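Box S1 | Example of a co-folding query
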Amino acid sequence: MKKVKFCERCVESSERFVGSITFNDKKEDKKTLTSFNNNVCSACLYFDYKSKVDWKEREKELSDLLNKHRRKDGYYDVLVPGSGGKDSRFVAHILKTKYKMNPLTCTWAPHAYTEIGWKNFQSWINSGLDNILITPDGKVHRKLTKLSFKNLLHPFQPFAIGQSVIPIKIALEKKINLIVYGDNQAEVGVGGNLFSFNDKYRNILLQSYNKFEDIHLSGFSIKELEEEHKISRKFLNLYIPARQEEIEKNNIEAIKMPYFLNYNPQSNFYYAMEHTNFEVNPEGRSEGTYTKYSSLDDKIDGLHYYTWFIKTGRGRTTEDAGLEIRNKIITREEGIALVKKYDGEFPKKYFKEILEYLNINEDEFNEIIDKFRPNHLWKKNNSKWELLQAVWK
Ligand SMILES: [Zn+2]
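Box S1 (continued) | Returned holo structure for zinc ion
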């Protein structure tokens, strides 16, 4: 049986999406890390690296970059994509107030706004920002989400594709050459892999395409979507990336703020509450985790994290606890107890609405879910699924 490796410092496992968390030796480590240990995940190693960064130097680098893009004609000089969660709020606010930039914000709408998500989105804009909200064709988005759920157990994929594609297209259209991302995705692991220790981490790789045939959505090519699933190409514009040559020609640069400024999810949360009226989940913690301040906007969020848990045995609590352990907000022991208690909790709050949205019944739902349970992670005992390898076992 394939053995899952758990980080000895946090609660992360080797099952996190391929390429995002690594435990392997890589050449890049040795340049920046003094103590390499392959029982420690790359996200934790990244925090070792962070503790050695000269943050004053980095802020100077930020300031120079902003000065390069700053405009005097009153037009927008920076684009901040975001949902109005704590990270995008923090970044847009400091760009405007501390660095005196003129940001335009843009938002790719969730599948279905939660009440608190919509309220926070509104208060974000009301804190003094221009925003472009892009909402995809509801019928098409729903079809793609269903296909993606059935085909990849990834109901979030069409949303995630739009999220990475839309800002670049807005930047091109509005002729804004700098895009600044505030999320801590990188610090969770996505960019926290070992390749991130070098300077490439400063910039985000922009989604683009060279050959149209290479574009895939919900696991299908555009041709397959047209021919087999009757979704016409003309309804897919929002999901099609910009051309590589167009991005290069326009010198669009996209950066991640956590490269320049040393902040953590909790400090952003306090900042967002104090300066922009950010509100936490009024019902307390979100399903599948113990936190009440992250990923609150979309009714489908809970399902998204649940599908992770099915496919990898680690869910939303692992993600949140890992990040909080690295930021010394909680201890590893506390993290393990939280993972045991909340990870993989079934998202029942919006379950009925989700079944309706996906246009499937509960039996079909369970059948799809069970098809994606890897053998080395799941075993059925007396009609109940048991997780075989966990950080708390
Ligand atoms: Zn770790």
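The first strand starts at residue 78 and ends at 81. Residues 27-35, 185-199 have pLDDT under 50 and may be disordered.
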